[in-house]
UniProtKB/TrEMBL annotation:
Active site: 119 (proton donor/acceptor), 176 (acyl-thioester intermediate)
Keyword DNA damage tagged: no
Keyword set, alphabetical order: Coiled coil, Hydrolase, Membrane, Transmembrane, Transmembrane helix
Lineage: Bacteria, Bacillati, Bacillota, Bacilli, Bacillales
Organism: Salibacterium salarium
UniProt cross-references to Gene3D superfamilies, sorted A to Z: Sortase
GO MF: hydrolase activity
Xref: InterPro entries: Sortase, Sortase_D, Sortase_D_1, Sortase_dom-sf
Protein name (record): Sortase
The keyword Membrane is annotated on this UniProt entry: yes
Amino acid sequence: MKQIGNLLIILGIVMIGIFAYQYWNHHHAQQQAMIQAEEQLQNATTEAAVWEDKEQQAERIKKYQADDKQAFGTLEIPKLDRTIPIVEGADEESLKSGVGHVAQTRFPGQGNQIVLSGHRDTVFRDFGKMETGDRYIIEMPYGAFEYEIKKEEIVPAGDTSIIGESSEEVLIVSTCYPFDYVGFAPERYVTYAYPVH
């Protein structure tokens, strides 16, 4: 009986160690991504000083692309008092560093669908507090863009129908659901936010 007790204690210590390492790893990756994103934004501010006119800036926005795994901007969520780096790609490595931009979708200011995704237990902690009327602010190398949530829905985890072309600019932000689920969650919580002009 004593051996079982000792084994359970050792197992508990190992589990705590794994959790602590994963937390540190995610935190470190997000810090590095934030540094990279801030550098991108700072460099862009310097470049913007030499832009000749709005037409040139509009062309720059239209052609903007980010490199895979690159942290290129930030997502601010005022309600949660949180600013998160945005990383190109929605694979596990990208999501470890911040909120992932789904590569086949557009960027702010390009007049179409922008899809961001993140983990509920890291970058989107407390995301259950978000509701219609709340706002997101995206800081890009070419400017800041504000969006207001107009709709929320819950979809199955494998549902990719939210990704596609749109007749207007819409920011779609998704995370795993239910928020308190242990393990791989069976659903996704999705918000649809539209530009605030």
